[in-house]
Amino acid sequence: MAFIKQLYDKNYIEYSSYAIKERAIPHLDDGLKPVQRRILHTLHELDDERFHKVANVVGQCMKYHPHGDASIFSALIVLANKEVAIDRQGNFGNIYTGDMASAARYIECRLSPMAREVIFDPKVTEYVESYDGRNKEPVVLPVRIPLLLSQGAEGIAPTMTTKIMPHNLIELLEAQVGYMRDESFAVFPDFPTGGMVDVSNYEDGNGKILVRAKLDTSDEKRIVVTEIPYGTTTEALISSIEDAARKNKVKVAAIQDFTAESVEIEIKLPRGIYAADVVDSLYAFTDCEMSISVALLVIDGDMPRIMTVTEVLEHNVDRLVDILKAQLRVEEGEIEDRIHARTLEQIFIEQRIYQRIEEQKTQEGVVQAVFDGLKEHHKEIKREITREDVDTLLRIPIRRISLYDIERAKKDMRDLKSRLKQIRHDLKEIVPFTISYLERLIEKNREDFVRRTEITSFEQVDVREAAKRDQKLCYDKATGYLGHQVVGTNIAEVSLYDRILVIRKDGTYSMVDAPEKLFIGKGMLHCGFPDKEQVFNVVFRDKKGAIKIKRCKVGGLILNRAYALVPDGATLLKFTLDNEATVELEYKPAPRLRVLEEQFPISEYPIQGAKASGVQLSKKDVKSIRMA
Which residue numbers are catalytic? Predict the structure, then answer.
């Protein structure tokens, strides 16, 4: 058994680690899960700016992703519907209605222009072997935009989960510029479905948000849902409204869904009900308002890590600087190579070094003649001359030598040196260069990424406050039953979400949900809505026979728990809510007893705690008690 436990523990740890790092949680550096990265890499390999059948993309991606075509297809659909990295053609489903995408053989996709510009650069990308060793795939992609925060992500792995909200790309880029200028910044979610969001408890990506549908109430006899909350669909929203209507929580006459390219759900109201009366109920009892808990968990290096939106954005900026530096250094090296090659070519042709090879009889002699000729101009050459350089010169065709344009060659050289100077300047001033890069992206893409979700502040609607009190709570004195399904004396108008304070004949009390039918017992003393300021006045006989009065408030009650107004062993004699009432005691005749009746104004006694033992009224034998 010990071996089995050890084997189980080892295998579970391996599975958990694999699921966390290779399946469910996005990487901090490029904001992508492995399947998403492999899809984009496949599209980049296939890219010719034309659309490709999704079935073909999925098949090609299986060279890198060993988990089957279904998982690749579903991930591609989700990624395409983010509308950042992939252009779509055909039916990719509907984010409003929840309709499924068409089969992979019927739809097409390609990289978006933005993806080509800011996601790929093989020259600064690290590659590793694919799972079968036949191909190379990127470790992470050199993404130059905050893709993780722009697209959002959801994933579940053993013992952990991530739920990252999508944000507006332009706002993210502007926040990056602000960070590089040491300015304060804050970014909040922006959803493709629009709607409204309250970010009061967002906690920088690790709290919760409230999302709401947008309701058009311009016609008082109907409500039109024009935008839905993130995380639901029109079908689910309509279902929640119908469910609330069946339970009599929302008054609705009919619902019609006209959603196509935009959301339009028409809610018709019954006679006597107006839009203003229904809005709060829709937010309280249906998916028109939803609470979403968020958790920003990513893979940082090889480990899962909980981060904030601010930390992720700052990391994106630091990584962007590193990527731009790497790209500049690659270009710097390429231009230095071109300048070196152009310099050698210019000397080789202008100084007619090529003529020296006519006298040589062997290949080595030819090569040495070129070496010797170039060395005479070593001051113009900035690096060591290699055999490869000479071979390149010897491959220049005679026609090109005869048509060589000296002035054009000089102009090209000036342009190359000017670009090299600019690159070296940008490397020294990398922060201003990065800011300029971001500002160009903002200017170019501003119109394509307009905020869709309205940021506002609203209190979550309390279902008890929104519920209509349209149920009659009745008490049957003959049977002792209380409830809105009971025939008897009408106590109050209640809703299904109200809580009721009930005081029984023996002085026990409890707080209960407004019941359909609940046995309270005969002689119920009080039934009403809980009020912490309400004073209850009781007269009782304690277990020693003394007559006492007690005034108290009750609060902090636990639902359905029984409490007592009088101490253990005491007998409740009188109960009233009237603080101006008077207790009248009539005493039994006794020798030397001159006063047979006394009055005690209730208001003269202090208000005590619910567990207090009360104040004694009289030590005399009491014949009767009246409350006046």
Answer: 106
